[in-house]
Design goal:
370 residues, alpha/beta, 7-stranded parallel sheet, 3-stranded antiparallel sheet, 9 helices, 18% strand, Polysaccharide deacetylase
Length: 370
């Protein structure tokens, strides 16, 4: 039943709280988070295939992104979440991706698939990969204390041991481990129609914390609100838009589920763009700042055809033509890091154009080749 018991009621609540009218200009933060796996599926791919996939991104992404600029004069920035469980692949492909990172076409964060894991094993793996990215290349942003920080996406959507069968994780207190190893925000969700979808949150930015070592801590938490700072043991969870798409119906009757995915089987149409904006994912008290966090698996050829081709070009054109329109509304192309910073600035009560808070808490990475 598409995990409807997890998300339908929270979705209906999100519909009821939408802002109807406002005299304030609307600012739209758009981020695309990529589960970037050059060797996926690993069993059937060779290093040569991975090389070809990365080379295509190096060549075609700057060319496409270079056609578009937001209200701040910034190009789209691709957020690459690279899998930490494949250190040999990382040593091959992370250096190849440096030209995108150095030139600001992309930023890199942490992705992880793991199963039957322990807290100690998870902690060690995250620290090892974090330090590799930070010490070898300066890939990660740093906080105001100079400590490296990373964004996170859990493989197979199984954050906090969320699957009913307990597979693809094993660590109930994952939120604590993430926060303690430098994670500034989790970008795993939405996972609809997977049963791993958070039970009480849909179209939300919210704080969550571990609950005495039980699984699915992300089912509980509190929405971001202007003036209410996070507690020391809370982690930021950033959700992408979820909706019922009545303009795309199965059998002509049943609305399809919008789950923030861009892929070869889920192409980014103008109608979908409008639906993302309509969900109004925001910080309470700052309803005119809308956060759109999409996800993809960009190395798969079928998906790359969309992400690097005319479909994506049309999506950016529609987004800018319809929503980057002077005083009424503005589009800001942001990385995952920048989206998190802007959301936190809103919580702290900062005002003015949101683009000025891109580096508010976690600074821009200083990429090194040596």
């Amino acid at each position: 039943m598409k995990a409807i018991d997890k998300w339908l009621i929270p979705y209906m609540r999100s519909v009821l709280r939408r802002r109807r009218r406002s005299s304030q200009p609307v600012h739209i933060m758009f981020a695309l988070c990529d589960h970037y796996e050059p060797l996926s599926p690993a069993a059937s791919q060779t290093e040569a295939v991975g090389d070809q996939r990365v080379a295509r991104w190096l060549q075609e992404w700057p060319r496409l992104a270079g056609e578009f600029r937001d209200v701040d004069g910034r190009h789209p920035c691709h957020s690459i979440f690279y899998p930490a469980e494949a250190p040999e692949g990382a040593k091959r492909y992370v250096p190849q991706l440096l030209p995108l990172l150095e030139s600001g076409w992309a930023e890199m964060e942490v992705h992880l698939h793991h199963r039957d894991d322990t807290e100690a094993g998870l902690r060690a793996q995250l620290i090892e990969f974090r330090d590799y990215l930070h010490h070898e290349f300066g890939i990660l942003g740093k906080d105001r204390s100079g400590l490296p920080k990373y964004g996170f996406i859990h493989g197979n959507w199984a954050l906090c041991n969320a699957r009913p069968d307990g597979d693809w994780c094993g660590v109930n207190n994952e939120l604590d481990v993430l926060r303690e190893t430098g994670c500034y925000a989790d970008f795993t969700f939405p996972s609809v129609p997977s049963p791993t979808q958070p039970r009480n949150f849909c179209n939300d930015l919210y704080w969550a914390k571990d609950r005495a070592g039980v699984p699915r801590s992300h089912d509980f938490g509190r929405r971001l609100q202007v003036g209410l700072a996070p507690e020391d043991n809370e982690l930021l969870l950033v959700q992408g838009p979820v909706a019922l798409n009545w303009r795309s119906r199965k059998f002509g009757l049943i609305p399809r589920i919008e789950n923030a995915d861009i892929s070869g089987g889920n192409i980014p149409t103008p109608d979908r763009v409008d639906l993302w904006v309509k969900q109004q994912v925001h910080v309470l008290g700052r309803e005119n700042w809308i956060f759109i966090k999409m996800h993809t698996h960009g190395c798969v050829e079928r998906n790359a055809e969309v992400l690097l081709g005319t479909r994506m070009r049309g999506m950016y054109q529609h987004l800018l033509q319809q929503y980057n329109v002077g005083r009424e509304s503005a589009v800001h192309f942001v990385s995952a890091r920048e989206l998190s910073n802007i959301a936190r600035a809103a919580v702290a009560g900062e005002t003015g154009p949101p683009g000025q808070y891109r580096d508010w808490r976690v600074g821009r990475p200083a990429i090194r080749k040596d």
